[in-house]
From TrEMBL:
Its EC number is 1.5.1.5, 3.5.4.9. Keywords: Amino-acid biosynthesis, Histidine biosynthesis, Hydrolase, Methionine biosynthesis, Multifunctional enzyme, NADP, One-carbon metabolism, Oxidoreductase, Purine biosynthesis. Homodimer. Pfam families: THF_DHG_CYH, THF_DHG_CYH_C. Pathway: One-carbon metabolism; tetrahydrofolate interconversion. Catalyzes the oxidation of 5,10-methylenetetrahydrofolate to 5,10-methenyltetrahydrofolate and then the hydrolysis of 5,10-methenyltetrahydrofolate to 10-formyltetrahydrofolate. InterPro entries: Aminoacid_DH-like_N_sf, NAD(P)-bd_dom_sf, THF_DH/CycHdrlase, THF_DH/CycHdrlase_cat_dom, THF_DH/CycHdrlase_NAD-bd_dom. It comes from Actinomycetospora chibensis. This is Bifunctional protein FolD.
Amino acid sequence: MTATKLDGKATLASILDELSGRVAALTAAGRTPGLATVLVGDDPGSQSYVRAKHNDCAKVGITSIRRDLPADATQADVEKVIDELNADPACTGYIVQLPLPKGLDSGAALERMDPDKDADGLHPTNLGRLVLQEPGPLPCTPRGVVELLRRYDVPLNGAKVTVLGRGVTVGRPLGLLLTLRSVNATVTLCHTGTKDVAAELRAADVIVAAAGVPGLVTADMVKPGAAVLDVGITRGEDGLVGDVAPEVAEVASYLAPVPGGVGPMTRGMLLTNVVERAERGTE
Ligand SMILES: Nc1nc(=O)c2c([nH]1)NC[C@@H]1CN(c3ccc(C(=O)N[C@@H](CCC(=O)O)C(=O)O)cc3)C=[N+]21
Ligand SMILES: [Mg+2]
């Protein structure tokens, strides 16, 4: 078997195309959405992600606002920018690019955001809304995983999904999203305390690997015909490396690779969150 690629790059292009029409309608009504990014420091990876997000905004007609702070910015500097964005009517939603430089408190920064402007869905209020199955912005990477599977007609209703990793941006919220009534998957969330990860993986119809350990998932751990989504990103000497070994493509039915899989979907869901917020209006 050679897996069908779950092509996040092509899917992002479709999503941006769909969003363009919705943004045009908002703009015609005088309500152009605006996405802001808060970037602290000069980590090249973070700079490139932020640049990509602004390029996406330009493609669909979302106004983009960049707030870049130097690496030696203080917590008070960051919080001042957050307060300004909370008050700025041109900013429909925004993100604080993570991780923040050492010494800054990202939890305190996130909590200071207006939860209704949280384009990432990572504010405690929005994570709480997800637990309670109340409407709100959904975390972008988990939403990207579910949306990518939906667009390729990979069933989740009743499926056994094994997630590797319990991080706050992917694993834990993904478990919550997959178990919503509207998705209806059965989830096993594996972490460093899991006794037999290979056995949990072999039982899965869908595997989502978000451990950040290069090559962790090998072909012998995958049930033939399973769908595998790689969300691990490690910056290696020759580019990005995922958690999934390349030979997994020989046993999986579908594979979302790194790069070109879930990463671009994360960006698509960020813009979707902003457009949805603009469509709802600000009350
Ligand atoms: N507040 C916040 N929100 C985030 O959503 C957030 C963050 N902080 N910090 C860092 C992580 C990482 N992340 C990615 C987004 C897009 C790609 C992406 O588009 N990747 C492409 C190419 C990447 C490349 O070539 O460098 C791909 O996988 O094909 C990857 C990773 C969002 N993050
Ligand atoms: Mg995001």
